[in-house]
Amino acid sequence: MNGSAIVAHNIMSPQDKQFPTLVGLDVGCTGAAALCAAVAALASRQHQKAATKGLRQRAASNVAVWSLAAVAASVISIAVAANTTHEVAWANEMIYIGLAVACTPLVAAYLAGAWRLGGAASRWGSCLAVGGLMLGGAGVTLDPSLCRLAGSHFTHAHVLFLGCDLIYLGLLLHLVALPPAQQ
Fold first, then answer.
1. Containing H/E element for 16?
2. How far is CA 144 from the centre of its chain?
3. Residue 48 burial class via C-beta count within 10 angstroms: exposed 0-12, middle 13-18, buried 19 and up
4. Does the pLDDT of residue 180 top 70, yes or no?
5. Cα–Cα dist 57/157, whole Å
6. CA separation for the pair 97, 27 (Å, rounded)
7. Sign of the CA dihedral running 24, 27, 33, 35
8. How far apart are CA 108 and CA 91, in angstroms?
9. pLDDT digits (tens, 9 = 90+) for 137-164
10. For the purposes of burial, counting CB atoms within 10 Å of the CB of 3, is it exposed (0-12), middle (13-18) or buried (19 or more)?
11. Do 92 and 20 touch, CB atoms closer than 8 A?
């Protein structure tokens, strides 16, 4: 899902001095990506409400968006610190899985409301994002079967990350297809 993951898991070995930092960046960026999706969902709803309420509401929505962006940056910092200074049991899983699970209802609520916005291309993007959400969730439940069939070469993590990639692609297609007044 991000460049640090490719370097950490495909190029470096766990014995490299920079490995913990890159794993921390990978975990932090993955957790921050979930927060950014939630921020986008909240910002879109706030933007739609602010368009009818005036400047004061718009300013308040901007403060909320920047506050959540600061939280996302903090998540990255915490993940890097947890991986470089000392190993904290379950810290990585709580950051990238916990945040994804916590942010899912916000993104799902946005997608449910977004269905009525835009045209066919926007709806197609929304459907792709929902499909990615279902695929990611299914990957976790299918893990025992996937492991029996493919061993460690194709596990729930692969399906989960494919689902996440489809969610982001679907959100991108949805947002690009919206008329500028609705973005």
1. none
2. 25
3. middle
4. no
5. 40
6. 9
7. negative
8. 25
9. 888 788 889 889 988 788 887 888 888 8
10. exposed
11. no
6 vs 24: CA distance, rounded Å: 13
Residue range 82-133, pLDDT digits in tens: 776 666 767 777 777 777 788 888 888 888 777 776 677 788 888 898 898 8
Amino acid (one-letter) located at 127: C
Distances (CA, A) of 19 to 54, 87, 105: 49, 13, 33
Residues 107, 35: Cα–Cα separation, whole Å: 10
What integer pLDDT is reported at residue 50 of this predicted model?
Answer: 54
CA–CA distance, 77 with 149 (Å, rounded to integer): 37
Say which residue the tokens 């692969």 belong to: 158
CB 76 within 8 A of CB 8: no
pLDDT band per the 50, 70, 90 thresholds, residue 179: low
Q: What is the pLDDT of residue 77?
A: 75
Q: Reduce the DSSP state of residue 2 to 3 states and report it.
A: coil
Neighbours of 150 (CB within 10 A): 11
pLDDT at 86: 63
CA 43 to CA 66: how far, in whole Å? 10
